[in-house]
Design brief:
The protein has helices spanning about 10-20, 20-40, 50-75, 85-95, 100-115. It is mostly helical and about 140 residues long. The protein has one domain (about 15-125): Ferritin (Up-down Bundle), CATH 1.20.1260.10. Helix 2 runs antiparallel to helix 3 (about 50-75). The two termini are about 15 Å apart.
């Protein structure tokens, strides 16, 4: 998978559980961003033949977003402001200009961001109190 993958620290789960509202709000924002990214990729001529697939991804991600919003509502957690990721901002800031280089870089960044969310010990192996992990 990714060369820089590390084992999950022992204190990861207690930290998540101690900050579950913030984790859930962050998760909601990530689902929303995944949907908007799929839609934004449709602007590239090289991806015009993939518009239906990109729409399907956007719809799926919006459904995930709604699931997390519903969970927030059931738990009485207010949806709040997103916090930017320096890692993602740095990746996206390195995208070159120009139609072909830009689409290639954008797709590589998306793959790295999605790939980083996977790990040796996937979240579905943990009891996070009903958090809807989609992996």
């Amino acid at each position: 998978m990714l060369l820089w993958r590390e084992n999950i620290p022992e204190d990861w789960l207690p930290k998540v559980m101690a900050n579950l509202p913030a984790v859930l709000v962050d998760h909601a924002h990530l689902e929303r961003k995944a949907a908007t990214t799929a839609l934004n990729l449709e602007k590239y001529r090289d991806l015009y033949g993939r518009v239906e697939e990109l729409n399907a991804i956007a719809i799926e991600e919006l459904q995930h977003f709604q699931l997390v919003l519903d969970l927030l509502k059931r738990r009485g957690i207010p949806f709040s402001q997103p916090y930017p990721s320096a890692w993602i901002s740095g990746l996206m800031g390195a995208i070159r200009n120009g139609q072909r280089p830009q689409v290639i870089d954008h797709l590589i960044c998306c793959a790295l961001i999605e790939g980083r969310s996977w790990c040796d010990n996937p979240p579905e192996n943990h009891d996070l109190g009903g958090v809807p992990w989609r992996r």
